[in-house]
Design a protein that fits this description.
By secondary structure, the chain is an all-alpha fold. Helix 1 packs across helix 5 and helix 2 packs parallel to helix 7. The longest helix has 38 residues.
């Protein structure tokens, strides 16, 4: 499937979720239920199945992909933090902008877009990239917990038992050791097929215009960092590390994803400005429907 068809398909599924919300078939609160199904069942099944079936003979060349994710996320978050400090924003807004700029939607949106454009081999690299986002989520969670005087044990527990992380580890292990999956492999294959439509419909349910009018300038900055600056940084780092071909293309495409929905989780759990973070997620997601096709053409 070409880049235009991929992004158009993603857009249709997102709009389907939004239309279902407008019609009252599903509510915004249903997104949290769908997200739990996606994070705990569908995405882990997709990750395990993709890695189990992939050719991982060149896995040593993939281990730097999550490192690039963390570097670009850290740099983007730092720029947003300095911007907020320069404007004299309070702590909740400052760290809200930081997490929205640092964390990218490399899984929820990155998986279907990358798989649609680059196929199964591209998806494997997207999974490695998304591992970096998981590490960013854990690191930022521990940092924010420390700054607020809370206990980091809850974040560590969530990270240790995060289903996509275990799916990643088990998928690589079963692949490299040649372990059979039996009927479980068939079941996981069926479940993995639900990941993309559920992700997109859930994303459509979360789209909300009401917060944006108070945060246009900040959301614009974060969108620029996520959709333009981050992929340029990723391209530079990838080139220096001698990434070429599919490794280079997928890494840059994943770096161009909008703000992660997990940023809202960090905002809620650490008393950050949730409305501001939601505005950043919303604007960057909408604008990504224009920027992603452009990046896919360049790559």
């Amino acid at each position: 499937m070409g880049s235009t068809e991929t992004v158009l398909s993603v857009l249709v599924l997102v709009l389907l979720g939004y239309i279902l919300k407008l019609l009252g078939v599903l509510g915004e609160e249903d997104a949290s239920t769908l997200n739990r199904v996606v994070i705990n069942v569908a995405i882990p099944s997709l990750i395990f199945t993709s890695l189990y079936r992939a050719d991982l003979s060149g896995i040593s060349g993939l281990v730097l992909i999550p490192v690039i994710c963390m570097i670009t996320g850290t740099l983007s978050g730092t720029i947003a933090y300095l911007w907020a400090r320069r404007r004299g924003l309070d702590s909740g807004k400052t760290w809200g902008l930081t997490v929205a700029a640092a964390m990218m939607n490399s899984g929820f949106l990155g998986y279907p877009v990358t798989a649609g454009i680059f196929g199964s081999e591209g998806l494997v690299r997207a999974i490695f990239y998304d591992t970096g986002t998981t590490l960013m989520f854990t690191s930022l969670g521990l940092l924010l917990s420390h700054l607020s005087g809370g206990e980091g044990s809850r974040i560590m527990k969530r990270a240790v038992f995060f289903p996509p992380l275990w799916a990643f580890l088990l998928g690589v292990t079963f692949n490299l050791w040649g372990l059979p999956t039996g009927i479980a492999g068939t079941i996981l294959g069926y479940l993995s097929g639900a990941a993309v439509p559920l992700i997109m419909i859930s994303l459509g349910l979360t789209l909300n215009f009401r917060f944006l009018r108070h945060s246009v300038a900040d959301a614009t900055l974060v969108s620029g960092l996520r959709l333009l600056i981050s992929p340029v940084m990723a391209a530079g780092i990838s080139y220096v590390l001698a990434f070429r071909g599919l490794n280079f293309s997928v890494t840059v495409l994943e770096a161009s994803m909008p703000s992660a929905m997990l940023a809202a989780v960090l905002a809620i759990e650490n008393d950050l400005d949730v409305d501001l973070v939601s505005s950043c997620i919303f604007m960057s997601t909408i604008l990504s429907l224009v920027s992603l096709p452009l990046w896919s053409v360049v790559l």
